[in-house]
Structures are given as structure tokens and as C-alpha cells.
Amino acid sequence: MKQVLLDGTHDTRDLRNALGRFPTGVTVITTRTPGGKLEGFTANSFSALSLDPPLVLWSISRKSMSVPGFVDAGHFAINVLRSGQSEISHHFATPRENKFDGMPFEDGLAGVPLLEGALARFECKTETTVDGGDHLLFVGRVHKISYGDGEPLIFNAGKYCTAVPLRAPSAQTDLDGVWDGLG
Ligand SMILES: Cc1cc2nc3c(=O)[nH]c(=O)nc-3n(C[C@H](O)[C@H](O)[C@H](O)COP(=O)(O)O)c2cc1C
Questions:
Q1: 81, 89, 102, 109: which sits with the fewest CB atoms below 10 Å from its CB?
Q2: What pLDDT digit, counting tens, does each position of 67-77 carry?
Q3: What domains can be seen in the chain, in order of their start residue?
Q4: How far is the CA of 166 from the centre of ligand 1 (A)?
């Protein structure tokens, strides 16, 4: 097990490597600015925050071109990608002028673009933003959801993957009970 002290002289690749040990899903976060410009970028920082009220969070690098648009818009949508949508992930992770050219989408609340074919979509109003170092953290209240069945796209150790359930029955027992206990 490699140990690294984060004392300012460390190699940031080690921090990235350690963070990469935590697999996530992949989302495209979208918005429509007050001026009508569509913005979207690939994010794996999305996380559930609260069930009641329904809150989610994500963060964006302050260097990202779309930061001002997300701040001004006050609304956003989280589009959770399917296992077959790694090209869409790559598309929205690559800076370009209009990422929505040729991309099938429909208008959601406040005209925010919702990607067709996503596994789940969360339409949100920005509740607050929080300083997060070199990132800006968004907390959003969820106003509408849509979701289907299928396999999610997984990002693990810098690679796109699929999720495979463990086969041992003991690995799956009583998970419903754990969540029910939390209400
Ligand atoms: C799988 C994956 C996850 C990413 N997650 C985030 C994220 O959570 N926050 C972030 O700021 N950038 C993230 N990025 C990088 C952005 O998608 C990328 O910098 C994008 O170009 C930003 O778009 P923009 O500059 O047009 O705003 C991720 C990239 C990939 C491939």
C-alpha cells in the first residue's frame, strides 16, 4: 500500500490515483443560460445529498468554460449515462463551441436540455453554490425526475467500465433492509 503525505511537495498524480480507486457513474450536466446558450459538460462528481428535501450536488472546475453559464442559469439537469454512451461522455468532456450540434435532446424545466437516451435525468434548481478550492460546488433541489432500466456507464481508475453484480448471494442480502431503516 503506497502512502503519500499531502504536504505541498507531493505528486498530484498520487491524489488522482487514490481518488480513482472510488468508482462512479458518469453524468452530463446541462443548462440553458439566460441568453439562451446551451452548456453541458461531463461530470462524475454528481452525488445524492438529501431525500427530504430532495437535494443533489456536483462540482465544476473553476477553469471550465461553462462555469459562468451554470452560475447565471439557476437551473441545471443531471443526465446519467448508459454503458453504451461513452462517446457522449467524451464529447461533453471536450471543450468546443456548441456541444449540442447534432445531439438529440428535448427541453426540460426552464428550457434546460435533457439528453435523449439517458438512463436517468434529474431536473434541478440551484439551491446554493459553495467554494470548493479549485472547484465550485453546486447544490440543487430536484424538481422532476425521469428514469428507465438498463446498465449505467461506470468510471473507474480513469477507464470506462460496466457494473457487474457480485454473484455470491451473501453479498446482496438485506440491502433493502439497511435503506428502509433510514426511512
Ligand atoms: C468521466 C469524466 C468525469 C469528469 N468529471 C468532472 C467533474 O465532476 N467536474 C469537472 O469540473 N470536470 C469533470 N470532467 C472534465 C470536464 O468534463 C471537462 O473539463 C470539460 O471540458 C469541461 O467542459 P467546459 O470547459 O466546456 O465547461 C470529467 C471528465 C470525464 C471524462
A1: 102
A2: 999 999 999 99
A3: 12-181 (2.30.110.10)
A4: 30
